[in-house]
Every structure is written in C-alpha cells, then in structure tokens.
From TrEMBL:
<dbReference type="InterPro" id="IPR036513">
    <property type="entry name" value="STAS_dom_sf"/>
</dbReference>
<protein>
    <recommendedName>
        <fullName>STAS domain-containing protein</fullName>
    </recommendedName>
</protein>
Length: 98
C-alpha cells in the first residue's frame, strides 16, 4: 500500500471523551500547529459532545491555516458539521471530514 507523505501535516488523536476541555486543548494545538494540514482523528472517542464539536468548528472557521481534516465522526456529528457549514463539499471549506 502506498501512502503520500505530507511533511507539513500532523495528526491529533482523540481518545475517550471529547468535551469542552479537550476542544480547548485541540484549539491551542491548531493555533500553534506550524503545519499546513492537521488531521483530527475521532476513532478513539467514545463520547463526542455536540457543544465541544461546535466550539471546535468555530475555531476551525476562524483559522487562516492549517487545513483541518476530521476523521472518525459518526453520522450525527457529520450532519451537525454540515449544518454549521463546515462541509468538505463547500468550495472554501476550512475543513473536511472522512
């Protein structure tokens, strides 16, 4: 299996509960990321707070850089992000999700 290596990309893995405290930590990591792209991986999260996800979405939309990819979200969270216009189908999307 071949994989494209992006030297200016980072991954942040979310484990356990994703709440406002964790969202604040990730916000700090995004602000100081120093890279072109960040992947936030929710595969290890057992509980994702809607409020915390909305807070993170607001942070992402205010950032000039990096581009953020959200992975491992459930259908409900993906739908919520679409409602917040954080959708990978938008031409000027600040984030995408897989």
């Amino acid at each position: 299996m071949a994989a494209e290596v992006q030297p200016r990309a980072r991954t942040v893995s979310v484990e356990g509960v994703f709440d406002l405290a964790v969202a604040a930590i990730i916000r700090t990591k995004l602000v100081h990321a120093g890279c072109d792209s960040v992947v936030i991986d929710f595969h290890g999260a057992r509980d994702v707070s809607d409020v915390a996800l909305a807070h993170l979405a607001l942070t992402i939309t205010k950032l000039q850089s990096p581009h953020v990819v959200l992975r491992g979200l459930g259908q409900h969270q993906e739908r919520m992000l679409r409602y917040l216009h954080l959708d990978d189908r938008a031409p000027d999307a600040a984030a995408s999700f897989t």
